[in-house]
Amino acid sequence: MNSRLLGIVLVGGRSSRMGTDKAKLLHPSGMTFLQHAVGRMREVCGQVCISGSAAESEGTDASTGCSILPDPVAYRGPVTGIAAAVDLAAQQQQEGCFVTPVDMPDLTAEHLRGLLHRWDQFPEMIVCATTENHNSIQPLVAIYPTRLQNELHQLAHSDQRSLFRWIRTQPYQAVPLQQTACKNVNTPTDLEDTLPKR
Ligand SMILES: Nc1nc2c(ncn2[C@@H]2O[C@H](COP(=O)(O)OP(=O)(O)OP(=O)(O)O)[C@@H](O)[C@H]2O)c(=O)[nH]1
């Protein structure tokens, strides 16, 4: 089990397109999306925290037993949560954060192991999933080294806060995954598509 990386599941944001909290949606496994996302992350990281927007939710999440790391400023996007998570990892003398979103129900621990394997070879670099069809960077399925703490804070405090653009200015390792593994569930229609077909 990897103790050099802090596992982070991103649950912040407004879930406005879904109209309900995506963390609480029911996954085909019978778990909630959050329990499923924490479970796959626990297979690769010894410590897993939840990164959320609401400061009032500080504490421990009862459904998973994970500590909640509230964003210092709510609703400023995932980079805010990732910068705070990298701070915690640095405080704990860990080498980085392994980040995944709560809304990719088809992502598995096996996919995460692929990124971890690459990071073992390139621990100084960002290791980021890309989807093979469009060669598109997936910044929310990525390992961020703690050495990038200051840069992540600068980005979090900037006007545009796009991890997607920023990663392309950094040395990074791309780990290609199938498009389906990184499919976001953002709307009720997306959710229908994740349910087993009868
Ligand atoms: N910690 C943290 N996570 C976030 C924040 N915004 C989004 N996320 C997470 O990032 C992932 C992708 O989120 P999006 O689909 O872009 O945004 P969303 O707020 O969940 O949904 P919409 O309101 O429909 O855009 C999900 O796992 C969210 O929980 C934020 O401000 N802070």
Bound molecules: guanosine-5'-triphosphate
In whole angstroms, the N-to-C terminal distance is 37 Å
Overall geometric form? globular
Task: Classify the oligomer.
Answer: single chain
What is the gyration radius calculated from CA atoms? Answer: 16 Å
Weakly predicted, low-confidence segments: none
Rounded mean pLDDT score: 93
CATH topology: Spore Coat Polysaccharide Biosynthesis Protein SpsA, Chain A
The total number of structural domains is 1
The level-1 CATH class: Alpha Beta
What is the number of helical segments per DSSP (H or I, 4+ residues)? 6
Number of E-type strands: 8
The sequence of SSEs as H and E is EHEEEHEHEEHHEH
CATH superfamily: Spore Coat Polysaccharide Biosynthesis Protein SpsA, Chain A
Based on secondary structure, the structural category is: alpha/beta
**How do the strands line up in the largest sheet?**
3-4-2-1-5-7-6-8
Based on the coordinates given, report the CATH architecture: Alpha-Beta Complex
Family: Belongs to the MobA family.
InterPro entries: MobA-like_NTP_Trfase, Molybde_CF_guanTrfase, Nucleotide-diphossugar_trans
Keywords: Cytoplasm, GTP-binding, Magnesium, Metal-binding, Molybdenum cofactor biosynthesis, Nucleotide-binding, Nucleotidyltransferase, Transferase
Protein name: Probable molybdenum cofactor guanylyltransferase
Question: Any key phrases for this structure?
Answer:
single chain, 198 residues, alpha/beta, Spore Coat Polysaccharide Biosynthesis Protein SpsA, Chain A, eight-stranded mixed beta sheet, 6 helices, binds guanosine-5'-triphosphate
